Amino acid sequence: MYISMSDRHGGKEKTADAPVDAADRNGVQFRLSPVILWLGLVSLATDISSESAAAVLPLYVTGFLGLSVIAFGIIDGINQGASALVRIAAGWVSDRLGRPKHVALAGYGLSMLARIGFLFAGGFWSLAAAVTGDRIGKGIRTAPRDALITTAAQPEHLARHFGVHRMLDNIGAATGPVIAFLVLMLIPNGYGTVFVISLAFAAIGVAALALAVPNLRTGKASWAVVTPLRASVPVRWQLFREPGLGRLLITSALLGVLTVGDGFIYLVLQARDSFAVYWFPLLYVGTNVVFLLLAIPLGRLADRYGRGKIFVAGHLALVACYLFAAAPFGGTWPTLLCLALLGAFYAATDGVLAALAAQLTPADRLATGIGTVQTVTALSRVAASTAFGVLWFATGPATAMMVVAVLLLAGIPAAFMILRKAQRRVSPA
């Protein structure tokens, strides 16, 4: 038996697709917590750091270092999934401590240190090690950070609060590639300069988190007071048997294994249109601008009409993006439409998935549940990136993208059927 934020609604059983009650929509005025604002600014600085480096990584690997698309597929798989190694453990530690800021700070700090590795990486293995360290840091910080957002947010407007955070996050994600673009335009092969700037913004994000974000307590757990270490192990396995969370894990795995990394999509567009190398980072800008513009509106729609519905429907935009990337015709407008569809996909899924995981997880295991969903998503995307690199090598970029589009289109109805009955059983207060 547990009591969670959903108990504020009279102990009713809510499904993942159920719209919020009219009283929730009209009776509770949206108020943005300063904690979420500061966390958004931390993510803004950190995403300037990560996305400035990520925006040049595909060209750095395949052009400057001269590695193959299969090598890039492996590195992109690491980029997608190395964080999965630690997400559940980081969430569990956060829940045991009840102070997620400490865990999040460790993750942000590790990513900052990994940025130093990019300055000295000159081959596949050194670059893979730097990417792994950076992504492990992301895996450590993400679930505790999202637990802080959930704790500080109004439950009636949870997806909207995540939308605000993701909007700020993506202002940074759009700014980082602009910085990379300017550097490459002014300094040919100026990848080292991009990596120095990336390190500087990572340090700013760590400082902002350490100095400005309060150390909120989450859930009921405390390492020292509540639950001995041995007694906590069965609780973790019990969490995976939560009926709604189990369906969400299956859905995330199904859709994640058909989600190609952004870098591959941009390489397909670059190969088709053959635009100058220094324009490449602006592809990331287009995606992230659409993401930040749509994050709050789609979060509001998810709160009102059902988070599961919006999450699954967002993958239709991804199918359309794949089809435009695979199309034989190129030019400015098809490319812009492809970027807009990719941004809409992220706006409909990224923050909404975190809110959905929080909705379907007991309050005292909040970070663990969010981390579990993120782990399954990350691992499935590792498989997607690695397989797509091989598929590209065997069939060519356009054919590979078309194959993935058809498979994802077939998987969306199945995902909807699996997730539509996801629910959380809430005990009366």
What characteristics describe this protein?
single chain, 429 residues, mainly alpha, Growth Hormone, Chain: A, two-stranded antiparallel sheet, 16 helices, 76% helix, disordered N terminus, disordered C terminus, MFS_trans_sf, MFS transporter, transmembrane transporter activity, membrane
Report on this model:
It is found in: Cell membrane. Pfam families: MFS_1. Its main location: membrane. The protein is an all-alpha fold and 429 residues long. It has one domain: MFS general substrate transporter like domains (Growth Hormone, Chain: A, Up-down Bundle), CATH 1.20.1250.20. Helix content is 76%, strand content 1%. The protein contains 16 helices and two strands. It has a two-stranded antiparallel ribbon. The chain starts with 13 loop residues before the first strand and ends in a 5-residue tail after the last strand. The model is unreliable at 1-14, 18-26, 221-235 and 424-429 (pLDDT under 50).
